[in-house]
Amino acid sequence: MTLISLCPMGSAGGPCYRGSVRHMLKRTHPLYRAFLLAMLALVVGALAACATSGDPPSDYVVVGWNDLGMHCINPSFSQMAILPPANTLWVQVLHRGDPPQIVTSGVVVEYSLVNNTTVAGKTDFWDYVGQLFGVELEPGVGLTGNGLSGKMKLVGDHFEATAIPALPYDDDMTWNPYQTAIVNLKTDKGVLLATTQVTIPVSDELNCAKCHAAGMDGTVNIADTGSVEGNILAVHDYYHGPAGVSDQGISLLDNRPVLCSQCHQDNALGKAGNPADKSLSQAMHGWHASFPDAQCYDCHPGAQTQ
Predict the structure, then answer these.
(1) Are 199 and 121 within 8 A, CB to CB?
(2) How many CB atoms lie within 10 A of CB 217?
(3) Tens of pLDDT, residues 38-68
(4) Based on the domain organization, do 129 and 16 belong to the same domain?
(5) Domain range holding 170?
(6) Which of 46, 179, 200, 251 is least enclosed by beta carbons within 10 angstroms?
(7) Residue 257: is the preceding peptide bond cis (ω within 30°)?
(8) In a shared domain, residues 173 and 249
(9) Residues 81, 118: contact at Cβ < 8 Å?
(10) Are 16 and 50 in contact (CB under 8 A)?
């Protein structure tokens, strides 16, 4: 599910569209994306026309969306990582007219998360990012160098900020999986032209305790490790470790923290993995499909952020 938010300039507290779109904006289908953008532009135009603030409408329309939908992240990275904090924001700028024009030059597009200006005390990701991803990052800097605010990069006909390290906690530590980013369109001299708001959805409800907590079905062949994540790695070792009953490989328990996509190809992270191994999605979903009591929301994004 991809969540989008559209607010006309000058509509603070006024009309604002928020909704979800399934399986849209696929990067490999530019015509499909162009069709959706045209529809969104019509929505924005209608909203701007009915804005009640009294401000004159901007000559520009800013359309923004998050291309990952409800992004899951691990609640802790000390033992394993499926997905890191890494939301991607896309923005397209349109100049009103007949016909409207896509704008790619002479402007600067900036973003900033609302009430989410620090990562302090919200996650242990930056304690383990070097071991997991082989890079050393300052807290608050994501895997592609973007932070919780910054300038967006022009990519073709739109602007992007990749791998924003959004976390589902406001600065007062209120759990908020529907983070909001303010997107400002400015001239290269810093004059504000238009603004919008975009939902940045992220949840750390990723949880496997239903089956992998001590004493549950997923632990029948292993000794409890003291944590759900450790028990998952122990199960993997039981089947695929040095003495695996299916095939033999390294011990994951002896190589913590483990990045799953190091071996299993993962489109979400752009990791090639090991061609001899199944993709991460195929390995995880294929295995759990054999257990009828395993339900999607038991694991991700979670009971509250379905």
Answers:
(1) no
(2) 12
(3) 555 444 444 444 443 445 568 999 999 998 7
(4) yes
(5) 2-203
(6) 46
(7) yes
(8) no
(9) no
(10) no
